[in-house]
Amino acid sequence: MSVPTPAPFTFRPHEHLRRPSDFQRVYDRRRSVSDGYLIVYGRENGLPYLRLGMSVSRKLGRATHRNRLRRLYREAFRLSRHEMPAGLDLVLIPRRPEHPPLEELKRSLVRLVRQLHRKLEREARPT
Predict the structure, then answer these.
(1) Are 121 and 94 in contact (CB under 8 A)?
(2) Cα dihedral angle (98, 91, 17, 20), rounded to 10 degrees?
(3) Sheet containing 88-94, strands listed edge to edge, beginning at the edge strand earlier in sequence
(4) Helix %, strand %, coil % for the chain, to 5?
(5) d(CA 113, CA 103)
(6) Torsion of CA 81, 87, 91, 94, to 10 degrees
(7) Which of 81, 38, 28, 76 is nearest to 60 (CA)?
(8) Sign of CA dihedral 61, 41, 6, 100
(9) Relative orientation angle of helices 63-80 and 102-124, to the nearest 10 degrees
């Protein structure tokens, strides 16, 4: 009996940022990019995969609405992460309470993560 390989689009538990200290390390790095839909904070993690955390403010609505936003943004990440550079810890912060279309959100997320990666690489290069 062979062990099944994980599907390429699964979002495994070790890819979540869960501890407050993980979030704080990302915020302390002070590198972010944004657009009309979201703010993305990031830092290098030295791992061969991306890790994701979500921070959804109470200003965006009731708990059920915030949870729906989390699910939508997590799904956009899950479906588009193969287009993003690996080795980053990311914290996504939705800017507006409206639910953006999934396809538009995926494009926005990929573009922002690539932009953040370039920003982090520029800082890492010796001058």
Answers:
(1) no
(2) -100
(3) 32-34, 38-44, 88-94, 51-54
(4) 45, 15, 35
(5) 16
(6) -30
(7) 38
(8) positive
(9) 70
**Contact by Cβ (8 Å): 99, 69:** yes
| Spatial separation of the C-alpha atoms in residues 25 and 87, rounded to whole Å | 15
pLDDT at 78 over 70: yes
Which whole-number Å values give the CA distances from 92 to 6, 9, 59, 85, in the listed order? 25, 19, 15, 16
Q: Which residue has the tokens 């995926």?
A: 106
- Structural class in CATH, domain 19-122: alpha beta
Token pair for residue 65? Answer: 């609405």
pLDDT tens for each residue of 2-26? 555 555 677 788 888 999 999 999 9
